């Protein structure tokens, strides 16, 4: 079944409310309170193991302003929260005969929910603004074998990521603060070039 963003988010809530064992949740961006509440309920009231995997850069530096708080709320309520990013882009761009700046990495761009034998996956972000975008997701009922394969892949994604902790949060905030302090300027001055960007 192919769903638009509003339908996908409504289906996500139904899947989360029906979860009985475990839930794997991937999010590029996340600010929807109803989805966060449903993940917390799956953990606290339905007894599920809830593993949330979100993009590291979007969590710490992205423009989804409520994301950090939502991710922290999930962790504080017993969900396993991990942050991930893709691998360095240089090798892939070199294979294509193109250059790319050093230090640039891919993203954790997945947007999916795996619960039981149900997989909801597609382009729908877990944000309020995505409800206004042209985004599509697909709901698929997996065979037991397919579900086991997807759970194995989800566990591999989790193992390749890093735990979201208060210490990591403070470290990232300090790093960002230091980066901003490095270039103090008035609002009327143009921003200086960012070291290493585009090299």
TrEMBL record:
InterPro entries to which the protein is assigned, alphabetical: PLD-like_dom
Residue ranges occupied by any Phospholipase D-like domain in the UniProt entry: 14-135
Gene3D superfamilies xref list: Endonuclease Chain A
Pfam families: PLDc_2 (PF13091)
Residue stretches of biased makeup (Acidic residues): 156-165
Region (Disordered): 154-199
Basic and acidic residues composition-biased segments: 166-188
Annotated transmembrane regions: none
Protein's name in the database: Phospholipase D-like domain-containing protein
């Amino acid at each position: 079944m192919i769903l638009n963003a509003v339908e996908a988010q409504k289906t996500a809530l139904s899947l989360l409310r029906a979860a009985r064992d475990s839930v794997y949740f991937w999010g590029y961006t996340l600010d929807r309170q109803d989805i966060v509440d449903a993940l917390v309920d799956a953990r606290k009231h339905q007894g599920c193991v809830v593993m949330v995997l979100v993009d590291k850069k979007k969590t710490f530096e992205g423009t989804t302003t409520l994301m950090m708080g939502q991710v922290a709320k999930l962790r504080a309520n017993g969900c396993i929260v991990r942050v991930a990013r893709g691998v360095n882009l240089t090798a892939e761009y070199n294979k294509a005969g193109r250059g790319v700046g050093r230090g640039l990495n891919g993203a954790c761009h997945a947007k999916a929910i795996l619960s039981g034998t149900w997989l909801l996956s597609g382009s729908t972000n877990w944000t309020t603004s995505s409800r206004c975008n042209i985004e599509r997701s697909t709901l698929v009922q997996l065979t037991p074998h397919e579900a086991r394969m997807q759970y194995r892949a989800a566990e591999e994604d989790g193992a390749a990521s890093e735990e979201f902790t208060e210490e990591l949060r403070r470290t990232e905030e300090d790093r960002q603060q230091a980066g901003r302090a490095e270039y103090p300027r008035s609002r009327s001055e143009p921003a200086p070039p960012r070291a290493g960007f585009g090299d």
